[in-house]
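From the methods appendix. Each design record in this collection lists the tokenized structure first, followed by the designed amino acid sequence. Records were kept in a plain field format so they could be parsed without special tools. The example shown here is representative of the layout used throughout.

RECORD:
FOLD TOKENS (166 positions):
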């Protein structure tokens, strides 16, 4: 073992460390402020009003309720979720029709594969209402709307559709 004391850090290293600490704290404070403002913001309660969205394929039938799946065309999870909902036929058992709300797509989307099986139609959120007005951000969620447009419930993408209830 050596009896020598460790060398004191250079003034330059101390200054760099202080600047790094200050920048880190500033970034952390910015993230906290953004999170706080987002969580305390009053979001509009989702309500289905077809006139607010661009219709890409008209609904095939009217039903007591409509499930709109938030769908991002480039997301493989969205495609899997939609295929699962179509395969299980949960909306039919619930007396609802299934539609797609294409979200976070800046350009008008191309034709959606399997759209003919969506009796709730295909809609494009060209104004960004789903994210900017309703405050939603979870692709694959299904929003269940009554025939008068009011929101009945939100069914998360990981939630089993059979457990969603009537």
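DESIGN:
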């Amino acid at each position: 073992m050596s009896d020598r004391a460790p060398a004191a850090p250079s003034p330059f290293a101390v200054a760099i460390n202080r600047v790094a600490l200050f920048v880190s704290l500033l970034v952390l404070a910015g993230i906290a402020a953004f999170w706080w403002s987002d969580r305390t913001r009053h979001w509009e309660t989702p309500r289905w009003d077809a006139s607010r969205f661009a219709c890409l394929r008209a609904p095939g039938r009217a039903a007591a309720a409509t499930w709109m799946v938030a769908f991002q065309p480039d997301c493989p999870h969205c495609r899997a979720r939609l295929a699962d909902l179509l395969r299980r036929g949960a909306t039919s058992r619930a007396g609802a029709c299934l539609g797609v709300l294409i979200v976070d797509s800046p350009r008008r989307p191309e034709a959606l594969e399997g759209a003919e099986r969506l009796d709730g139609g295909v809609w494009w959120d060209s104004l960004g209402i789903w994210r900017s007005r309703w405050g939603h951000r979870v692709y694959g969620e299904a929003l269940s709307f009554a025939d008068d447009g009011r929101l009945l419930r939100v069914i998360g993408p990981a939630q089993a559709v059979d457990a969603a209830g009537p």
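APPENDIX NOTE: The mean pLDDT is 88.
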